[in-house]
Amino acid sequence: MFDTALFEERLKNFTPEPLVPVEATPPSETQTVQEDATTIDLTKVNYLNFLNNDEIKKACEDVIREYGVGTCGPPVFYGTTDLHLKLEQSLSEFLQMGSNTALTYSYGLVAISSSIAAFCKEEDFIFADERANAAIEQGLITSRSTVVRFGHNDPNDLRKKAAKNGNKSKKYLIVEGISWTTGKVCRLPEFLEVAEEFHMRIFLDESHSLGVLGANGRGVIEHYNLDPNRVDMVIATFEGAVGSVGGFATGPDYTTIERLRLSSKGFLFSASLPSFLVKAVLKGIELIGDKPKRFAKLAQSVHEFLQECGFDVVSDPEAPFKLIRCESVDLEGQVHHYCRNKGVYFIHNESGLVLNLNIKLLEEPERLQRVFDVLKEASNVFL
């Protein structure tokens, strides 16, 4: 006979061991930055300031009132709305990939990793940058393909590696428009030459170049004035300049997207992107206008200023975030701490010091000057 009183007593006294030892978890240093007259946030990825755009917020609010905050499931199972179809059409047209050649995902990392895994199989060869981002790395793992690494953003090293593996039947090249880890702009024309010579399919991650590179913000393809048909698939997150969540894949050949629609697990088995976030992307694309040209001036001026201060600027002048290094990790920590105490917040990680730019700094020049003043003070003290 079940003894309820004994069960409740034992349950009350039950103290399970923690899954992770308490002493192994360091205290969190996470801090929410609230911008005000004296505080400037360069930690947030919000290049075109769309996260603070009232027009986008109002459009999202209207969609929530009509569609709610979620969808009924994956895109192929009651998860697709007219807004999803409109966004996919808008993306393919904006990136000049034809019509109906785009697919949206609810999570940016999965958009990239799942798109790679849908094409690349165990018997294939993938040529990947040695500094590839986490999303690409996950796609490489999931694909189980043989991965051949080449030097960071080095088409010459790719050519050497391709020559050694030139007889393989299926070969893929995966590059980033702007490297997530270094801020280097892809040498795409040279990579395309190698890919075409050795018959590779080329996948391009435009996550940090979309919206900021090219006169219209179409990314590195427009930046070099290249024919979009030379790239087999463009993949990206919406979490850079566009100011939303999720990601997408597109390409000049509709069969590429149809394959993803049938075999990309991140698309098939994940709930679709909520309609109000879809609307945020649609509105963002509509509002890009001349912002990429203006942002380019900001990126260039900040780059030049950092060099004048004596910082080692790893990222390229066109990059929307600035990666800078000091002589030592300790020195980087001191610069980071000094600037934070002065109200200028940015990121300090294993790569160095990362400053995410925001076009708002152009619209409020006194805040940009504040950033310059604090960084100059830090360079005078520590460099």
Fold blueprint:
Elements: H1 4-13, E1 40-41, H2 54-67, H3 75-79, H4 82-94, E2 102-105, H5 108-119, E3 125-129, H6 134-143, E4 146-150, H7 155-164, E5 171-176, H8 188-197, E6 201-205, H9 220-223, E7 233-237, E8 247-250, H10 254-263, H11 265-268, H12 275-287, H13 291-309, E9 312-313, E10 321-325, H14 329-341, E11 344-345, E12 347-349, E13 352-356, H15 360-363, H16 365-382
Parallel strand pairs: 1-11, 3-4, 3-5, 5-6, 6-7
Antiparallel strand pairs: 2-8, 7-8, 9-10, 10-13, 12-13
Description:
The chain is globular. The chain has 2 domains: 29-48 and 290-382, Aspartate Aminotransferase, domain 1, CATH 3.90.1150.10; 54-287, Aspartate Aminotransferase, domain 2 (3-Layer(aba) Sandwich), CATH 3.40.640. Helix 4 runs parallel beside helix 12 and helix 14 (329-341) crosses helix 16 (365-382). Helix content is 44%, strand content 14%. Helix 6 (134-143) links the parallel strand 3 (125-129) and strand 4. With 383 residues, it is α/β, with parallel strands linked by helices. The strands form 3 sheets. A 7-stranded mixed beta sheet has the order 2-8-7-6-5-3-4, with helices on both faces. Strands 9-10-13-12 form a 4-stranded antiparallel beta sheet, covered by helices on one side. The protein has a two-stranded parallel ribbon with strand order 1-11. It has 16 helices and 13 strands. It has helices at residues 4-13, 54-67, 75-79, 82-94, 108-119, 134-143, 155-164, 188-197, 220-223, 254-263, 265-268, 275-287, 291-309, 329-341, 360-363, 365-382, and strands at 40-41, 102-105, 125-129, 146-150, 171-176, 201-205, 233-237, 247-250, 312-313, 321-325, 344-345, 347-349, 352-356.
